[in-house]
Amino acid sequence: MDEFSIIDKYFKRNSFIGDDAAIISPISGNDLVISTDCMQEGVHFLKDDEPHALGHKLMAVNLSDMAAMGANPKYVTLTLGLPTADDDWLREFADGLFSLANKYDVQLIGGDISRALHISLSLQIIGYVAKGMALGRRGANLGDDIYISGSLGEAAFFLAGKLKNEKKITPNRLEYPEPRIALGRSLAGIANCMIDVSDGLLQDLQHILDLNRVGAELDSNFIPYSAELKKLPLKSKLDYALTGGEDYELLFIAPNSRARIIEKISRDLDIPLTKIGSIVAGKNVIIRGMKKIPKIASRGFKHFI
Amino acid sequence: MDEFSIIDKYFKRNSFIGDDAAIISPISGNDLVISTDCMQEGVHFLKDDEPHALGHKLMAVNLSDMAAMGANPKYVTLTLGLPTADDDWLREFADGLFSLANKYDVQLIGGDISRALHISLSLQIIGYVAKGMALGRRGANLGDDIYISGSLGEAAFFLAGKLKNEKKITPNRLEYPEPRIALGRSLAGIANCMIDVSDGLLQDLQHILDLNRVGAELDSNFIPYSAELKKLPLKSKLDYALTGGEDYELLFIAPNSRARIIEKISRDLDIPLTKIGSIVAGKNVIIRGMKKIPKIASRGFKHFI
């Protein structure tokens, strides 16, 4: 099976691949938002992990970047490096990828599939946002509220179980994260800045603090823990919820004056939006109700140590 | 060294990386042209290959896709999978990548760098073309002329030498291909269809023939051989030139009425544009002056056998 047969067989479902490149006509009055995320065998996943889950997650982590910008995802390109062209693997991977893509009306418009020594997955995503309305990481001011969507810690909790070979529960948010697309779009024009929590809340929040030269004070009583964490001791709960990452919730900053509209968005979308703290002077995170903050070295996921 | 340090140190030269995604404002009256190409260790290159050449080639093969569409390349995103974060490797790779990017005023606007078991390189590229003017692979009509730019066979000749551990000559077109950007843009509106020769002339031409349900008759006397091939016997020359690939010349189809403007483009850009045959009825390639055509199985580069 050569590259062209693989494309014909598995990757032409909602796509218009054919020329050297895809052609799109931008929608006037909109900016384009572009990002990319890859997943590597032996680092982000193991060789024998379910290909359906890998396809879902590759699409989900890229969609989540669009959500974090308040953008409407529209197109993706895919590069796949594979040791062999295994029909079952390809079918299930494409199923996982396209089922999530179709849910958000995202089209695969190009790609490159090649043999490789290990599995290497890379997706690049393009979305639209009304001109000037994309949400970046700048705009956090003293006194602003810090919010998190949904709940935290489930992905890290399942990862810990997986590493200890405990029985898996499928689907879980480690393998099947759900990007917060509708929420992201609703918060464009409401939040001042936003980021998706992929590396752990403390690490991702720190990016915003560094860029805006401010600090943050969080209250450990207000962290929305995932159901799995509720019976754990506080220290352990906080560790999963604040440093675990991979939940793909949205962390955003907004002035107090937006509290009521944020409550309304939460009700309309049926997604909890919890105020977990405030922007303060300084440059670090302080956690009320906790004497020691996890060391930065143990926070989140560092790719190179 | 973590991902963020690597980005700061090596990949912020002409880029504006920072948020979850980059924001661009499309130029009105233009279409966007998008494609992606990856290079995998052990398949497209070897672990010890010069990182500067890898950076150049990764950029070049993606730029070549823009050339083939008649587009003006503008933005790229990069995903890198690396076993270790080696400073020398990263500096040289980035040098190779950016020196070619800067030549064509292409900006790196996003990326994802991660640890991986083997080196995996993937670039995604976005360019502009005046609305409706992108050159695809459709539009070859009976009697049309078939042209090739520059000369063929050098990359394959050097690859054969490299595989036999013969003394390398650097730079050569295998490692330092030069994308035909100016030519591609000049041919938008002149050629009917175009493709870049990455997999070998016969295989790439066949894509156009299949899509347009036509055949082609080439004349072996008119093939523009690279200087290195000139002393070889005809069979060997033709094999390098027609099945070798990786020269990244542009293959294009145009009606006879465009012959004079194509001559003018060739003179203006100082790039040979050679008529090597015609579109005929049928579905395959016939080569005048050659009894046997290389079997399809031995043509070009098949990623999965």
How would you describe what is shown here?
The structure is a homodimer of 305-residue chains. The first copy, chain A, has 305 residues and is an alpha+beta fold. Chain A folds into two domains: 3-130, PurM-like, N-terminal domain (60s Ribosomal Protein L30, Chain: A, 2-Layer Sandwich), CATH 3.30.1330; 145-298, Alpha-Beta Complex (Phosphoribosyl-aminoimidazole Synthetase, Chain A, domain 2), CATH 3.90.650. Chain A contains eight helices and eleven strands. The first copy, chain A, has helices at residues 3-10, 51-69, 87-103, 154-163, 181-187, 201-212, 234-243, 259-269, and strands at residues 22-24, 30-40, 72-82, 107-115, 120-130, 145-149, 193-196, 215-219, 250-254, 273-280, 285-288. In chain A, the strands form two sheets. A six-stranded mixed sheet of chain A has the order 7-9-6-10-8-11. In chain A, strands 2-5-3-4 form a four-stranded mixed sheet. In chain A, helix 3 (87-103) links the parallel strand 3 (72-82) and strand 4 (107-115). Chains A and B meet through strand 1, strand 2, helix 2, strand 3 and strand 4 of A and strand 1, strand 2, helix 2, strand 3 and strand 4 of B.
Name of the level-1 CATH class of the largest domain in chain A: Alpha Beta
Helical/strand content category of chain A: alpha+beta
Question: What percent of the residues of chain A sit in helical stretches (DSSP H or I)?
Answer: 25-40%
At CATH's second level, what is the architecture of the largest domain in chain A? Alpha-Beta Complex
Number of separate structural domains of chain A: 2
General form of chain A: globular
The helix-strand sequence of chain A is HEEHEHEEEHHEHEHEHEE
Alpha-carbon Rg of chain A, integer = 20 Å
Number of strands of chain A: 11
CATH topology of the largest domain in chain A: Phosphoribosyl-aminoimidazole Synthetase, Chain A, domain 2
